[in-house]
Amino acid sequence: MVVYAGQGDARRSMALLWRHGAEPTEHPTPGPKPELSVDLVVDTAVAVADEDGMAALSMRAVGERLGRSAMSLYTYVASKNELVDLMYDHAFAELADAVERETDQPWRAATTAWAEHLWRFSLRHPWTLQVSHARPVLGPHEYRVFESLALVLHRAGLGPSDIRNAFGSLFNLVRGLVRTSAEARQAQAATGMAEDEWWYARSSQLEEVAPDFDTRFPTLTAMARDGAFANDDEDEPYLEQEAWQTLRFGLEALLDGIERRLAPTGHTRRD
Questions:
Q1: 238-256 burial by CB neighbour count: b if 16+ within 10 A, else e?
Q2: Mean pLDDT of successive 10-residue segments in the chain (271 residues)?
């Protein structure tokens, strides 16, 4: 399931994202129901998506949690599309707060921390991985996450275009790999089969269905013999371990490449 941001009215959505102008208020009604607000609607929607996934998100589901009808929410958020934009950027405030605290570290440590915070954030809010980055939300907290990394790399001496490319490379490295981890966590609930059970049921058949596997795939066989595919922690899903190890490898390789592009004097080089 891929969700594209920016499908609501551009003027209204951007005004709400940046809180430009007065927030709508509900007409008072009798009874003990709490006053609604954009923030309360968005907070509740994030809770629905965190607990039940993006597929469960609807204006009706949010309204039910608030003890209101779906129609009452439209005073604050005009559509589900607009709500997703607000949810995404609202959730990113948590990530922005975390990465901004790392910007005073040496650039390599700060960049590593930025990537690790993004990894953990995405596992806490896996629904954010379904919001396509092909059309960014363009909210303030999304920009804060970009700014924090840009500041670190600028101070290190990386040029403007290289900063843009480094951000894209790092963001997509983490986002791609953490998606595998998030899916590994969700697979048992979706399929009814534990990860280890699934792997053993199929890998145990290889000897029968591919008796010449060793000769057809000698390099992979040697890698397996040397423990390349071993599960180091049986309490943690194998795919999640593999994705994390791949992230660490890819991150180190990317940082090595970035380091070679830094201006030797510490001043920003021209791209």
A1: bbbbbbbeebeebbeebbe
A2: 90 92 52 75 98 95 96 94 96 98 97 97 96 93 98 96 97 94 87 86 89 95 90 66 90 96 60 44
